[in-house]
Amino acid sequence: MRNIPILNKENVEKFAKERDVWKDIKEDIKALKDALEVGLEPKNALHLEHHKLAKKIWISFKNKKKVGLEAKVCDKKNT
Question: Which residue from 31, 45, 67, 74 could staple onto 60, CB 3.0 to 4.6 Å apart?
């Protein structure tokens, strides 16, 4: 199974609890994941940074606060 960490599944779960349309999106994501046989979990440092940033954005969005972002440099072997 190939890994494509393009979204934060925790955020999708949280959105799905709040809005019905996200339940449909969650089902679509699962169907695509199964059909394409890909994983969505972070597998390296760059993926983990993406996961953390998405979580930080969701928390800030939820709390209606601005997001402070820090740029991090990752070497190419982590991509």
Answer: 67
Q: What is the pLDDT of residues 6-64, one digit of tens each?
A: 678 888 888 888 889 989 999 998 898 888 887 777 778 888 888 888 888 878 877 87
- Helix/strand/coil percentages in the chain, nearest 5: 60, 5, 35
Task: Based on DSSP, count helices (H) and strands (E) in the chain, helices before strands.
Answer: 3, 2
Domain ranges of the chain: 2-78
DSSP structural state of residue 25? H
What span, in angstroms and rounded, lies between the C-alpha atoms of 4 and 65?
29
Closest to 6 in 3D by CA, of 37, 31, 29? 29
**Residue 39: in which H helix or E strand, if any?**
strand 38-39
pTM as predicted:
0.57
